[in-house]
Amino acid sequence: MARSRTPDRPPVILTPIPPGQLPAVLLRFEAALGDSRGRAVFATIAATAAERAEGDRAETHRQQALNLVRRFRMGVAEGPPAIGFSWDGEALRADTEAYVLLHEVAHYQLAAPARRRVVDFGLGAGPETGARAAAERAAVLFGVAREREEAMASLLGILWEVTLGHPALASFLDQNWLEGAGSPGAARHFTRILAALQQQGFAAPDGRPTMRLRVGADDPEEPRRLLAQNAAGRLVEEVD
């Protein structure tokens, strides 16, 4: 269960796992994964640190994340998301943790092209967004479609953390992927979201994230409606 956007309160870990119990929980989750490819990808996540980086190491991770942001030709704005939006349709607020930046990169990849030009990708306020009411008014994707995209962005961001050598397991915990570990439902959710990323070209068979950007619209009317509402910005369909 990945963290989702809610307008009134920040996401929290649903069931905290004491450090001493974490190895057993990871084993239960792995044992419930029936797919060998899914187990292999999960192993790359489980092999990373469960604690966030601090100090100079955290800053190094942030700069690495910002380098990836720039590779996707996303704009970068100084200051924290709390003074406005995480993503304002053109630029990403830089003054936040590396894992947050990578999560937003994943959203940029997964958003329909027109929504890449909408604040917070038209999904409503993210956990760190300060202008929450404005972000909620700009939301254009709702319900199951939004929750699925949130789950895909969560896992894709975690896979970027694995690739960069960041503490991906910390995000896996924080974003509730281990909720109900050992149950068929938790394993199926992980396998289903991973398969969707792979089938759509956002992740390779071994779980490594790609530079792919989504090119399809959410619905036939989306480009006309959103481009009329959000005239600024530039539409980018592929990243070299």
Account of the protein in words:
With 240 residues, the protein is an all-alpha fold. It has one domain (19-229). The chain contains nine helices and two strands. The protein has helices at residues 22-32, 36-46, 55-71, 98-110, 132-137, 143-164, 168-174, 184-199, 222-229, and strands at 75-77, 91-93. A two-stranded parallel sheet has the order 1-2. It starts with 21 loop residues before the first helix and ends in an 11-residue tail after the last helix. Residues 6-10 and 231-240 have low confidence and may be disordered.
What is the number of independent domains? 1
From the spread of the alpha carbons, the general shape counts as: globular
**What's the order of the H and E elements?**
HHHEEHHHHHH
Based on DSSP secondary structure assignment, what is the total number of beta strands?
2
State the helicity in percent bands: 40-55%
Kindly name the structural category.
mainly alpha
What separation lies between the terminal Cα atoms?
32 Å
Largest beta sheet: strand ordering: 1-2
Question: Helical region count?
Answer: 9
User: Whole-number radius of gyration?
Assistant: 17 Å
Mean pLDDT: 89
User: Could you tell me the strand content as a percent range?
Assistant: under 5%
Enumerate the spans where pLDDT stays under 50 for 5 or more consecutive residues. 6-10, 231-240
Largest pleated sheet: 2 strands, parallel
